[in-house]
Amino acid sequence: MAAERKTFSARSWLFAPGDSEKKMEKATAGTADVVILDLEDAVTVDEKPKARKLVSAFLQAQAEQARSRLWVRINPLDGPHALIDLAAVMPSKPGGIILPKSRSGNDVVELDHYLSALEVAYGIAPGSTPVFALVTETAEGVFNTGTYKGAPRLVAMSWGAEDLADSLGASENKNADGSYGYTYDLARSLCLLGAAAAGVAAIETIHGDFRDLDGLRKRAVQMRRAGWRGMFAIHPAQVDVINEAFSPSEDELVAAREIVDLFAANPGLGTIGYKGAMLDRPHLARAQQLLKLAGRT
Questions:
Q1: Both 66 and 195 in a single domain?
Q2: Kind and range of the H or E element at 290?
Q3: Is 177 one of the annotated binding-site residues?
Q4: Which pTM does this prediction carry?
């Protein structure tokens, strides 16, 4: 996998069911950084053959450059549909593959083998199809969030609260105040830590109430400050809110530039006073990271 894959950045990841050409068109016409053509949860078993054909045809109808933002969520590797999904969509050269219910970094390695063979078969540049792993949708996956360092093709990781609840046999995953229960907050934190250890982007899971844009905005801002680099969307109305929340504000950028310039002007100092506070090298690193993120978005 090329080194530049590690700097892949996208703020909004909008799901569109693969069995609805109308919804795929609407999602693609919007402002989402990435559109996910879904062959998994959004499609019933009986409709999966139809969805594969629709997704493949939809990809082929797009200009090659436009396909870079059209990713496909296949079905889990340990089920009967994943290889059929890949065989159906890879000839149409999707921008990337989203792997659900990943059990560990070994699943990404296995997926890499399949993609490598399919890239050769269909004249696609070797190693050019990136992978995004959903890593906490099963109890097993939660234990293995730290196993993704060095996984080939991997550019991002996310967590899932709904499928995890199913895996645990839970009837609810939230507290009375609407916050996630301890087990799910733990899964979220382990995903963030796993992504940092792997050197890839951490993407926050969905905000289920697509009408609650104020709640979405508040949550998205909190997540970016915590280290997340983007968020899933389930409705086009959520996309602009997510894009704004995961884009540094002008005030943040001004402060970051001032901090970087201050350290550059005083290369021999480990700590520097700035607006009444003492800053050290970790503050410089965060300022540099924020400017880098702004440049990518």
A1: yes
A2: helix 281-296
A3: no
A4: 0.86
